[in-house]
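Hi P.,

Sorry for the delay on this. The queue was packed all week, but I finally got your sequence through. Input first:
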Amino acid sequence: MQQAFEEIERHYEKVDPWGYQTNPEDAKRADYIFGILDMFFGPGEQAEKALDIGAGEGWITQYLPARSIFGYELSDKAASRFHPIITRVKKPEGQYDLVVTTGTLYHHYDWVTFLHLIKCHSSNIVLTCNIKDWEVPEVKTIGKQIFEAEFPYREWTQKLRIFKVK
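Then the structure:
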């Protein structure tokens, strides 16, 4: 069953409801994600435009290697905590040469819309990172998968994928 907007907003009544900023596992996860991105955007290289779909409060978003960083987040409370370098978009427009989504492609979220946004608005690299056992199999329809890795995260296993599109 898909999570209701009101429930998402309730989660964000508290700052950092999942402890992303304080849990060492999340620091390791972020380091891993950015280490992988460095393989595709070398040292000092950046995308022109990056979009984080399901950006939450922007803990990952604010560090994306891009000149312009955009966050798509349903929760108004979460988006109100974005770092100033993140521009919130309620409806993505145009193309983004880096699209990232972490922890969103699950049946209890609106994964159909998220996949649609990825397919419509990505022009180069897409990174997905989800709990392996929760990830919808349709993630494989994004484009040509060029990288895949699994790593431990809290009590789960994360599945990180890189796709090349267009």
